[in-house]
Amino acid sequence: MPGQSGARSVTTNQEGLYKDLERVVRKYAGTRFLRPVADHTREAFSKALDFVESFYANREGVKDVILDSGCGTGESTLHIAKRFPNIPVIGIDKSAARLDRACSGKSPSSTGDVPPNAFWIRAELLDFWRLALDEVNAERWHIPYHALYYPNPWPKQSEATRRFHLHPIFPTFLALGDTIELRTNWEIYAREFEAAVRMLAPEGTRIECIPAEPTNAETAFERKYKEARQQLWRVLIEK
Ligand SMILES: C[S@@+](CC[C@H](N)C(=O)[O-])C[C@H]1O[C@@H](n2cnc3c(N)ncnc32)[C@H](O)[C@@H]1O
After folding, report:
1. Which residue of 109, 163, 191, 205 shows the fewest CB atoms closer than 10 Å?
2. Could you tell me where the DSSP H helices lie in 17-150?
């Protein structure tokens, strides 16, 4: 239902969870998405590696890194960086326009408002996540927290397989983070995501899908939805 300030809630021709959810999620379980990684994301990733190295002053050993995937204008990256001041937080988005709009695109040290552990790069998530998993598997990175705030919902049934949990990238995504937090304004997305995680997550994983009422908006989309009084949802995965 549209709220008072006009941000539209998701319009969909889908009733309930995607009918083929289980088949699609299970089909990709244990597989790896094979499309070649784009050069521009490889270059962006090497900047992220450099940032992490310099943040830790080239210290040896496994390095904690936090991901803010699909960070848009980068506001959430700032909030997360303030929450975890001792860990580098990488905000990733493919949209140069969004990244340029707010604080991103500037070097972290270029303004006093940007914490030294926040960093943004323009990259394709489907590629970035695979490169990040290589770092995790090689025990160079450890990801304590991974944010996926308000991903594009792809609400038409015909576009459902573009949702991250219905895409071959999902097992890779799920391997990135001890704690993963999805935020969305579409209940069906939250419920599907939760169900997909339940199919693939290791035993003992804590999975919670709950209505959310954040006091302060932490992203541009969250602000818009809150002002429109839309119901927000949160899926929290703790391995
Ligand atoms: C609905 S916006 C939400 C942005 C931000 N998280 C917020 O809450 O304000 C979704 C963002 O994900 C980014 N995005 C979607 N698919 C992506 C992909 N495959 N790779 C990188 N960024 C992607 C879009 O560019 C967009 O900025």
Report:
1. 109
2. 21-28, 39-55, 75-83, 96-101, 125-137
